[in-house]
C-alpha cells in the first residue's frame, strides 16, 4: 500500500494551526501531518493589546504539544531557516532537513523598525508581549505625571510598510478611555499620525468616518497622509516638512516576512506570491502560504483563518478528489472588532486586492450591504466571545473556523452586525 501523503506545516500560529487541524478534520487518518514551530506555544496576538492596560496576561498562550498530540500531528520544535521547494523540504537552523509531499509555509510576519531612522532608539513599539508590557510601564508613568498636573504629549505613528494598523488605533482609543477613568486625561495631549490616506485605510470610508468621529469626540488630534521621514529623541519629522514633538512616541513598525524564502517568488518585503484563491505559491503547486507569510496586503488573524481553510480544502481535494467536490477558494471578507474599553467598533469588510502598490487593497466594489460597520458597547462582548472561543477550539485541536460552534458564532456575529451596523451614507 502506498504511504500516506505527508503535509509539512511550518508555523504554529493562526494559519499553521488552522490548516493542520482543518486537514485532520477533513481527511481523518488519510493524511500524515507534521508541524514545525520555533515556539512551543501559540500566541493569541489580538489580546496582547490589553497588556499595556494591565489585562489579558494569563490567557495569551496555548501550549502546542497537547492539542497536536490529540490530533496525531507530529510536533517538531525548531527554527526554520529556509525551504527547498523542488525537494518539498524545509531546513532548520540546526541543520535538520524535513520533507513533505505538501509544504504549508505559515511562519507569519516580523517587524522592521530599522526602516525608519531613529525609531528603534526613540519609540515604544507594539508587536511582542514584552513590548506591550514595556509600553504599559510608560503608560503608568504618563498617568502619574498627568495626575501630578504635568502636561505630556503622546504621539502615535504608523509608518509606510505597516500592514495591520488596527491594533494601534485600538491602543490610542483605549488610552483615552483609561486616562479618563483615572481623571488623568486633560493634561495629556494625544496626537495620531499615519501614512494612510484614510484612517484604517484598507477598510474603506465607513471605518474612516467612525474613527474620525471618535477622534473628534475624544479630542485626539488626528492626521492622515503624514509620512515619517525620521525620528529624533523628542520630535518626529515628516516628509511634508512638519515636525511634531513628543514625550512618548508609540509606533507600529513596518512589516516584513518572518522567514526569507529566496528560492520562492516573493515581493520586496519577502511575502510569498500566491494564487489568490488557493494560496498556492506561484509556480509551486504543492507549496502553500496562508496567513501573514503570503502576499495578501492586509495581515489579519481572521483573514489567516480564511486562507488556512482554503489551503486545507485544496490539499484535501488533491489527496481525495471525491471527498469535498470543489474546494472553496479564499474570499477575503475581513471581520474585526476595534476595542476602545468603553465601547467597540465592528467592521465586516469584503476586500479586493488591487495589485496597485499605492493602494494595494480596497473595499470590493460589489460589497453592497455585506460592508458593515457599527459602534456599540455590545461589540465588546463580541470581542470577548471570540477571545474565549478560539482557545477552546485550539486546545481541543479543532479548527476555529468550522463546524457547528463556528456556524452558531457566525450567525450571532452576523445578527449583531445587521442590528448594530450604522447605515452607510
Ligand atoms: C498587537 C496585535 C494585535 C492584533 N489584533 C488583531 C485582531 O484583533 N484581529 C485580527 O484579525 N488580527 C489581529 N492581529 C494580526 C494577527 O495577529 C496576525 O495577522 C496573525 O497572527 C497572522 O497569523 P499567522 O499564522 O500568519 O502568523 P503568526 O500568528 O505570527 O504565526 C507564525 C508562527 O510561525 C512561527 N515562526 C515564525 N518564525 C519562525 C521560524 N523561523 N521557524 C519556525 N517557526 C517560526 C511563530 O512562532 C508562530 O508560531 C494583531 C496583531 C498584533 C501584533
Structure description:
This protein is α/β, with parallel strands linked by helices and 425 residues long. It has two domains: 6-111 and 256-420, FAD/NAD(P)-binding domain; 113-253, 3-Layer(bba) Sandwich (FAD/NAD(P)-binding domain), CATH 3.50.50.60. 31% of the residues lie in helices and 26% in strands. The protein is built from ten helices and 25 strands. The chain has helices at residues 14-27, 65-70, 119-122, 129-147, 166-181, 204-217, 301-319, 321-324, 378-395, 403-420; strands at 6-10, 32-37, 41-43, 61-63, 73-77, 80-84, 89-92, 97-99, 102-105, 109-111, 124-125, 152-158, 188-194, 220-223, 228-231, 235-238, 243-245, 248-251, 255-257, 280-281, 284-288, 333-339, 344-353, 361-363, 372-376. The strands form seven sheets. The chain has a six-stranded mixed β-sheet. A five-stranded parallel β-sheet has the order 11-18-12-13-14. Strand 6 and strand 7 form a beta hairpin. Helix 1 (14-27) runs parallel beside helix 7. It starts with 5 loop residues before the first strand and ends in a 5-residue tail after the last helix. Bound molecules: flavin-adenine dinucleotide. Residues 10-16, 36-39, 45-46, 48-49, 79-80, 106-108, 126-127, 164, 167, 258-259, 291-293, 299-302, 304, 336 line the site of flavin-adenine dinucleotide (FAD).
